[in-house]
Write a structure and sequence with these properties.
There is one protein chain. The strands form seven sheets. Strands 32-31-34-27-28-29-30-33 form an eight-stranded antiparallel beta sheet. The chain is built from eight helices and 34 strands. By secondary structure, it is α+β, with helices and mostly antiparallel strands. Helix 3 runs parallel beside helix 4 and helix 6 crosses helix 7. The radius of gyration is 33 Å and the shape is globular. Strand 31 and strand 32 form a beta hairpin. Helix content is 18%, strand content 33%.
């Protein structure tokens, strides 16, 4: 012990201090006993997947009744805290004849992997495995009973639960069985939290038909079935991320004395409004080997192998002049021998017409639907137009012409393979919420006053009623004015989810926009001549993300060509930036010498060309992009580009002082990508 006179204290003082520590330890454990203590009463022995923690705590049962549950005003005899533990979860009765366990309504209580019936006592026997809630598992030990079976461990208890909760295939390799067993455990935890939080959704794991080497590779998937009729599928990564948010939501609910916690749909981890794969349709290409057109309505199968509907599409061979038929009698493009097409330039027109959903739900299940496909594996994926409407019959009417040279590999692909047309879309809230979201309270009286009299809510350090009232007010006004935006609070910021983009505002930005929203909400017809931007969505210019370039190769006079990932404010990849950094002389002429060992061989200044060639964005829509960066205390930017091709080149000269040498050796160049987003004005304004 540092900073005290512990080493000089007397033996009496040490004994007193040790006794005080023992009292505090006993108080913390309650009536629990440690592994080193021997007890003769029937007791629970904790099991854990970490063998070092298994068997470290014992909970004895005295003669009589022992109440088990979560902390409450009336504390139980055995207090547990975790997902699925009710304030009064179960009771253990210890009598001279037997030890029985009785669960109450809604309590997840398993004995040897089987859920016991509420209010029906079950006799516990030596070595029985008992699960309480989602995470607590014990082995029941009765010193007065003998058992021939070896003492079961955590893995044994987990496996018997999995065997009874889900029909696991018997021919799975052990590693896949382990993945699916782990998935069952976490899915059960999610279902318990959904039940506690009154989220009407049920999760279930399944094995996908796609390959992979781990759950993150796509072997284990999770289906979410909503009582409102929606059925969604999540990959394991997505489910794992949302499970963390579910736990945080559950902890907040528990911290508020188990009172209902209201979250906007876009901030609710149990509700999914992200664009996702609806299903795939398979089209076999072998007719094209004879230049025979393909006109079909292909069945679209969901990841759960359910038929979602029919996709109407066609693949048409074109003549050299671009004609696609119908041909005159006796004239067509048919070839008898596919080998005659080798080394010829072929043109195929792919048309994606409409999709017809097979749905018994009273409302459409998806909106913002689109189709993607690859004609050949090496091709870049082609994406159709997006139908933003919520309909059971989205219309695409998309056409794309593919020109390619017929090689032996491509001819073999056409003869024996197929093309997968993937249908994507955003789930509609009506398929996930049984009851419509209750409208927030009416805007405060200040809305009817002059703008100068409106006071902004203070920036909250934690979610509060004032915070949620302001967000609900913004959501209500956006809904009534047909603005496809939803606002929710997270991490001291306001997150905005629009039809195509997601971004973040600080509280001051949201407050100033709330004033503008109120002004439009009061007198929208008077705003025609004054408004030049839409306060419900992003301003004309907005920050998209950053791309970092490591400068170390420049210190060796090496040319650096990279496609750097653009990371958004939310920490997600949202595109790529193609950049070239090229050492040169003072006139911008490319350096043609040999690589150098380091900056020590360079002179007092260093020259290089920075080329920003192309910016490719994913899932972000904007009219133009601009790239900005700061170098040597000067700001630079490209010209706005609508296509993403910037063709920017600038020669930089850096003085090689100690700071610059260190920067080139171990620093990065941060490129900021900005967008110009021409948001459509309100229908009542424009």
């Amino acid at each position: 012990v540092h900073g005290g006179d512990t080493f000089d204290e007397s033996p009496e003082v040490r004994v007193q201090r040790a006794h005080a520590m023992e009292v505090e330890w006993t108080k913390a454990l309650g009536s629990l006993h440690t592994q080193s203590q021997t007890i003769s009463l029937p007791h629970f022995l904790n099991l854990h997947e970490d063998e070092r923690l298994a068997g470290t705590l014992r909970y004895p049962f005295n003669v009589g009744t022992t109440r088990i549950g979560a902390a409450s005003v009336d504390p139980p005899d055995m207090e547990l805290d975790g997902v699925g533990i009710l304030p009064l979860h179960c009771v253990v009765e210890h009598s001279a004849e037997a030890v029985t366990l009785t669960a109450f309504n809604g309590a997840r209580t398993l004995v040897n992997g089987v859920q016991i019936q509420p209010n029906h006592p079950v006799e516990l026997r030596h070595q029985d495995r008992v699960w309480l809630g989602s995470n607590y598992v014990f082995r029941f030990c009765h010193p007065g009973q003998a058992s021939d079976q070896p003492a079961p461990d955590y893995m044994f208890a987990q496996q018997e639960v999995n065997d009874r909760c889900v029909d696991l295939p018997t021919r799975l390799v052990p590693v896949v069985y382990h993945w699916l067993s782990e998935a069952v455990t976490k899915v059960n935890q999610a279902n318990l939290m959904a039940s506690d939080l009154q989220q009407r959704v049920t999760f279930a794991p399944y094995l996908s038909r796609t390959g992979g080497e781990a759950p993150t590779g796509g072997i284990v998937m999770v289906s979410a079935t909503y009582e409102a009729g929606g059925i969604l599928t999540w990959d394991w990564d997505k489910f794992s991320v949302r499970l963390v948010d579910m736990v945080l939501m559950w902890q907040e609910w528990q911290a508020h004395d188990r009172r209902p916690v209201t979250y906007p749909p876009h901030a609710n981890p149990f509700v999914d409004v992200d664009s996702q794969l609806i299903g795939e349709g398979t089209v076999y290409l072998h007719p094209l080997a004879n230049l025979i057109e393909i006109i079909t309505q292909v069945s679209v199968l969901s990841p759960l192998a359910n038929v979602e509907g029919k996709l109407h599409l066609s693949i048409l061979p074109l003549e050299r002049q671009g004609g696609q038929g119908p041909w005159a009698p006796g004239v067509d493009l048919f070839v008898d021998r596919p080998e005659d097409l080798l080394h010829q330039t072929i043109a195929l027109l792919v048309k994606v017409h409409t999709m017809c959903f097979h749905s018994t739900h009273p409302h459409p299940a998806y909106d913002h639907t689109y189709v993607t496909y690859r004609l050949f594996p090496e091709d870049v994926a082609v994406r159709t137009w997006e139908d933003s409407s919520a309909t059971v019959r989205p219309v695409f009417e998309f056409a794309h012409t593919h020109h390619f040279e017929m090689t032996a590999a491509r001819l073999d692909h056409i003869r024996s393979n197929s093309v997968q047309f993937q249908l994507w879309g955003q789930p509609c809230l009506s398929t996930m919420l049984l009851h419509p979201i209750q409208p927030p309270p009416a805007p405060p009286a200040a809305v009817a006053c002059s703008l100068d009299s409106i006071s902004l809510p203070p920036a909250p350090s934690a979610p509060s009623e004032v915070c949620f009232e302001s967000l609900n007010e913004a959501n209500l006004m956006a809904s009534e004015l047909n603005q496809r935006c939803v606002y929710y609070y997270k991490s001291n910021q306001v997150h905005v989810k629009c039809a195509e983009n997601s971004f973040v505002w600080d509280w001051d930005e949201f407050g100033s926009r709330l004033l503008a929203m109120r002004r439009i909400y009061q007198t929208p017809s008077k705003m025609e001549d004054t408004i030049c931007w839409n306060p419900f969505s992003h301003p004309n210019e907005f920050f998209i993300g950053t791309a970092d370039i490591w400068l170390r190769p420049l210190s060796n006079s090496l040319t650096l060509k990279v496609e750097a990932r653009v990371i958004s404010q939310l920490g997600r990849p949202c595109g790529k930036l193609k950049v070239v950094l090229q050492p040169c002389d003072g006139d911008g002429i490319e350096y043609g010498g040999e690589p150098v060992e380091g900056l020590a061989e360079l002179e007092t200044s260093f020259h290089f060309n920075l080329q920003i060639q192309h910016c490719l964005l994913v899932e972000i829509t904007c009219a133009q992009t601009v790239v900005r960066y700061t170098l040597d205390h000067h700001q630079h930017q490209t010209l706005p580009s609508a296509s993403g091709a910037h063709h920017y080149c600038h020669t930089h000269t850096l003085a090689l002082d100690p700071h610059t040498r260190a920067y080139l050796t171990s620093g990065t160049l941060c490129l900021e990508v900005w967008g110009v987003h021409h948001s459509p004005l309100l229908d009542v304004i424009a």
